[in-house]
Structures are given as C-alpha cells and as structure tokens.
Amino acid sequence: MAKVKQLCGRSEVKKSDCWDLSSLFESDDAWEAAFTKWEKQIGGYARFQGTLAADVKNLAACLKFDEDLDRHGERLGTYAFLKTAEDSANSTYQRMQGRFINAVSRAGQEASFIRPEILAIPQAKIKTYLADRRIAPYRLLLERLLRYRSHTLSRKEEKLLAMQTEMAQTAGHSFHQLNDADLRFGTIRNERGEAVELSHATFSTMLHCPKRSVRKTAFYQYYQQFAAHENTLAAMLGGSIQRDIYYARARNHASSLSAALLPDQVPESVYANLIASVRRHLPALHRYYDVRRRKMRLKDIHMYDTYVPILSGLQTRRAWDEAVRLVLAALEPLGGDYLATLEKGLGGGWCDRYENRGKQSGAFSAGSYDGWPYILMNYQPDVLDHVFTLAHEAGHSMHSHYSAARQPYTYYNYVIFVAEVASTLNEELLAKHLMAQAKSDEERAFLINRQIDACRGTIFRQTMFAEFEKTAHEMAEQNEPLTVEAF
Ligand SMILES: [Zn+2]
User: Fold this and answer.
1) What is the rounded CA–CA span in Å between residue 446 and residue 435?
2) 393 Cα to the center of ligand 1, angstroms
3) Of 378, 374, 373, 390, residue with least CA distance to 323
4) Which residues fall within 8 angstroms of residue 128, CB to CB, at 6 or more apart?
5) Rounded to 5 degrees, what angle do the CA atoms 400, 402, 406 make?
6) What percent of the chain has pLDDT over 70?
7) Which of the two ends of the chain, N or C, has the fewest CB atoms closer than 10 A to its terminal CB?
8) Which helix (H) or strand (E) holds 366?
9) Residues involved in catalysis
10) Which positions ≥6 away from 7 have C-beta within 8 Å?
C-alpha cells in the first residue's frame, strides 16, 4: 500500500517556512501585556462625549485619541488574526481573536457618539471647523464623514448598532470554521497512484492533473462535502445577506447595493455596466471552452476539465526560492527600491509559505500600519498558478508598504476598488516576463492558455460572483426566502 501523504500540524512546520510576526509582537505574552494596556484606554472616549460641538480643540483631541486607539488596535487585531489563520482549530488563538473582537465591539460602543455628534454640528460651524489649522490632519476624514449625514442615526440608535458587531459576524465566522477546520475531504490517489489528503490546496493541484479520472474523482469527492452541508451553507449565506440588508435599511440606504457602493463612491451604473459587458462577451468564453474541448480531444467538457493546462507536456515544478527569484526578475520594471524591499521581505519573514492542517485556505496579504505587510500562501511547487499568486499578493503587500510609508495612519488604507490594480499588474508583469523567456511555441501556447484562464478567473468569474451577490440580495430584499433551491 502506498503511504498516505498527510498534512502536518502547525507545530511541525519549519520555522524558516513560517512568517515572523515579531514586527507586531515578540510573543503571545507581549501581545497580552499590550492588549491589557490598550483595553484599559477604551474608557477614555467618555471624556469627549458632549464636547465636540463646543470647541474645535475638543474635536481635534477626540479624533487624535480615536486614531491612536485604532492604530494600536489594528496591530493587536492583526496579530490575533494571523495567528488564527495559521491554525483555525487552535483554541488559544481563537480565544485571543475572540477577546480582541469583543474589545473592538466595546470600543465601537464607547465611540459611537462621535459620528452623530459631529453630524449634528450646524453646517456653518462645521465650515469654520474645517478651516481650522488644528483640524487639518482630519479634514478629509471629516469631509468623508459628512457624506453619511443622511445615513447616520441618533446616538442611542448608533449605540444599539455598535452593540451588534460580534453577533453580526456569526454567519462569516461559522463559514470559516466549517470550511477551514471541520470539513474533511478524505484521501485520494494522484496520477502516480499515491494516496494524498484532499484539501482546499491539494484540490487545486488535482484539478491541474492531466489524468481525467483523477480530476473527476477529486471534483466529486471535494464538492460532495459541500453538498452534504448544503442547507447549513445556505443558512449561513442567507444570514450574511440578511445582515447586509438589515444595516442598509437601518441606515436609510435605498438598497444593500447602494450601501455597499457608497464608501468607495462607485456609481451603481458602473456595477451594472460591468455585469452587462461580461454577459455580452460570454460567447467568446464559450468559444474558448470549445477550443479547449477539441484540443483536449474530449467528447464533452466538464467543469473539472477547465483548469488543467491544454498542453500537458510542460513541466512547471518550481521550488519556493526559485519562485521568489522568478517573481523578483519579473517585477524589475517597478524599480530598485521596490525589488530590494520585496526581496528582503520575502526572505525575512513576511511570508507563511506552505499548507498545514487547519491553516486558512487560499492566499492573502494582511498587515498593520506599524508592522510588516504579511502574506499567507499555501504554496505548491507543481502549480505555476501559485507563482502568479505570490506575485499577486506581493503586489498587495508592496502597495500596503508604500501606503504606510507615505500616508498618515488615518489615510493609509485603500479601498477594494483600487486594491486589485497593484496585484493584477504584477501578474501581468510575470506573464510578460515568462513569455519573453519562453523557448518554444509550445511554451508560449502554454502561457497564452494560462493568460486566457486568468481572464476567465479575474474578469468572467468575479463578475459572475458579483451578479450572484446582486441577484441574491435583491431576492432577499423582495422577501423571497433564501433556500438551497433559491440559491
Ligand atoms: Zn487580490
């Protein structure tokens, strides 16, 4: 019998393959001490309550207090979040994360007077406030806040909304626990006949397997687990949608869509136009599927046939160090400072490289203003896409790095609508670099195929998600029940 390749536990992972979270806190004890100190400051909001309209000096002091508390909180929260992502079944970090979220919720309640109090300041007075030198660091913040005038409730109502922060996360939290900790997909034989534990990350490898029976078995074995929990999943998704609608209605938004688009000031017509354009170009996607079917010599094409490269002969195994070198070479057009910073970061603890049991699936970039911009990967050396993922997340992290270096804390975060520019550009640079280095038509065809699949994922699939979300929210807004069948 072939040996079962099982995922190792977090404690067995080599330290050099893990991120180094000491830019945030040296240890759990250091976190604990900082958290205790921070938590005590939450009560400090009280001294500003009822004073903001009286003097611009009070408002400036209050905003500074809020900024400092938020900035320390971000650092504490990032540590707890990243520790939980390492192993979502680790109860120590679940508790850490839980205590942090609870404290943030209390801070939100304590601070809930700020918005309504500012919004109640008469227009003429706010004008003189905005012109005051002492308020200069917060002028843009105030201008943004004033946009919410018609969506802000009374102090008491705002406090009630702030008290719901934790409850409101139940749907999302349950999904992560189910998806990352409780679901088990069993083992599966790969094309070499080895038994491999099926997981979110190995599933992606299996879909890239040239042998159709492996892809097909992996597909059904993986989705069987989701099908077995379809009512639970529908209930959680329904709960998340109901939450969006509740907040949109509570705050007088026309719809959950208009509430979602307000912060980034994206017009609804842009959202609708994206969906309409992608729909209009669906025939191109269907034509590509047919080319794929013919090239793969299949009678019919299934979902599990659409990830494997059409040209199967190309070996694309790259060890971690090789992947890093390749990404750095591809990003050369971004300049020496960019490359030096990224090289140092990737070599020096920004990135958590490989999968382990309980680790959050997929990949992300996350950090805090006062710490490094960390990257979570589930890197598999035989999946070229994971090199692109590394380039992508490196784009986010470098964006965060430059933003934190150049902007004050209040303004360093960027909105999702622009966030993917930095990451997608990096993917394009990597594709261009690989294309220039390609030595044969076969290799070039392989890369073109990869680029088409990337378009499918980034443009078609994401837009389909957006359309699904839009339709599901609209259904709920028209009081249609959100059952499995409805979804
Ligand atoms: Zn991204």
Assistant:
1) 10
2) 6
3) 390
4) 56
5) 115
6) 98
7) N
8) strand 364-367
9) 393
10) 197, 199, 355, 356, 357
Superfamily of domain 4-165: Oligopeptidase f, N-terminal domain (1.20.140.70)
Using DSSP's 3-state secondary structure scheme, residue 3 falls into coil
| Nearest alpha-carbon partner for 103 in 172, 32, 174 | 32
Q: Do 87 and 358 meet the contact criterion of CB atoms below 8 Å apart?
A: yes
Mean pLDDT, the chain, rounded, equals: 93
What is the layout of strands, in order, in the sheet containing 373-376? 351-352, 373-376, 364-367
Q: From residue 118, give the alpha-carbon distance in Å to each of 49, 79, 254.
A: 11, 32, 23
Stated as kind and residue range, the H or E segment containing 341 is helix 336-347
DSSP for 432-448?
Answer: HHHHHH--SHHHHHHHH
What's the chain's length in residues? Answer: 487
465, 361 Cβ separation under 8 angstroms: no
Q: How far, in Å, is the centroid of ligand 1 from the Cα of 85?
A: 17
Q: Residue 294 Cα, ligand 1 centroid: separation in angstroms?
A: 32
pLDDT-derived band at 29 (thresholds 50, 70, 90) equals very high
CATH 1.20.140.70 in the chain is located at 4-165
CA of 422 to the centre of ligand 1 (A): 8
β pairing state of 195-197 and 364-367: unpaired
Q: Quick one: which of 354, 359, 333, 487 has its CA closest to 425? A: 333
Q: Where are the beta strands (DSSP E) in 156-261?
A: 187-189, 195-197
Task: Give the residue from 108, 427, 454, 233 showing the smallest Cα distance to 446.
Answer: 454
**What CA–CA distance (Å, rounded) separates 417 from 69?**
27
Residue with tokens 């035989």: 382
pTM: 0.79
- Which of 389, 369, 372, 393 lies closest to 381, judged by CA? 389
**CA 273 – ligand 1 centroid, Å:** 22
DSSP 231-242: HHHHHHHHHHHH
**From ligand 1's centre to the CA of 230, what distance in Å?**
27
Spell out a b/e string for 213-222, using b for 16 or more CB atoms within 10 Å of the CB, else e.
ebbebbbebb
pLDDT in tens, 443-472: 899 899 989 998 998 899 999 999 999 999
Q: What is the DSSP letter of 367?
A: E
Taking only the tens place, the pLDDT of each residue in 330-382 is 999 999 999 999 999 999 899 999 999 999 988 999 999 999 999 999 999 98
Q: SS3 for 242-261, per residue?
A: HHHHHHHHHCCCCCHHHHHH
Using DSSP's 3-state secondary structure scheme, residue 195 falls into strand
Going from the Cα of 412 to the center of ligand 1, the distance in angstroms, rounded, reads 17
Distance 419 CA to ligand 1 centre (A): 7
| Strands 373-376 and 351-352, bridge-based pairing | parallel
